[in-house]
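Training component of the fellowship. As part of building independent skills, the fellow (R.M.) carried out the full modelling exercise for a liganded target. The chosen ligand was 3-methyl-2-oxobutanoic acid. The inputs are recorded below so that the supervisory panel can assess the work.
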Amino acid sequence: MAEKLTIPKIKKRKGQGALVVVTCYDATFARLLEQAGVDLVLVGDSLGNVIQGHANTIPVTMDEMVYHCRCVARGLSATHLVGDLPFMSYQASEEQAILNAGRLMKEGCVESVKLEGGRRHAALVGRLTEIGVPVMGHIGLTPQSFHGFGGYKLQGKTLAAEKALKEDARLLQEAGAYSIVLEGLPGDLAGELTESLSIPTIGIGAGPHCDGQVLVLYDLLGLDERFNPRFLKKYLNLSQEVLGAVAAFGAEVRQGTFPGPEHYLHSARKSDE
Ligand code: KIV
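Fellow's submitted model of the complex:
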């Protein structure tokens, strides 16, 4: 079993080999991800898309995050578990943000939380870090800003946007974030951000020059044949496998070939006495 990555160890991984991060939403996949040797498991609010079937992550609630974090935690014994703070669980007030982050740790059993946004949440990141809640930042294409961005669009395309993102990253690091997700950014900008920081960056749709990469598990497994963004590599075509397996089950049930003799027992009973 791989060595448990604590927060200090994650920080030390900067420049020491790529961090492998995969999202997860249940105990069965959590167990498999741990066996596969991923470094960090993230219960992303992407569960709004891939589990709940929403068009974006906005509807995901704290109760739902806590539930899925608990499920995933039961499938892990040694892998670092991060949980997303969902939309509006940390924006309204510092007190509410602290209480919700505490819930994710106490009830959801996560070891750190992730929240979206740069400078506007730097003070909160500082406060959470100070009271013992390690924070992973997330800047660039932050899905909770879906409506503000007008959809899932590449960020950091102008010089002003680049400058703002550099400042965001610096402020998050200064506030105590232990790593930062860089999503939907030009690869050269993600590389510059990575070089400018002493904490690891985790990229998604941000090119190869990050300290690690994250993908949504259902995306890398190819579970949705309709979802084919440029940044995604599907390591399996699992939607076709699932279709084939379930269709084969259905055919055998209809033909009466399942269950076969090897799948059940006959009673030894010979009479009613
Ligand atoms: O919600 C999520 O799964 C994420 C990752 C894709 C970084 O935020």
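The panel noted the following from the submitted structure. The longest helix spans residues 238-255. The chain has a mean pLDDT of 96.
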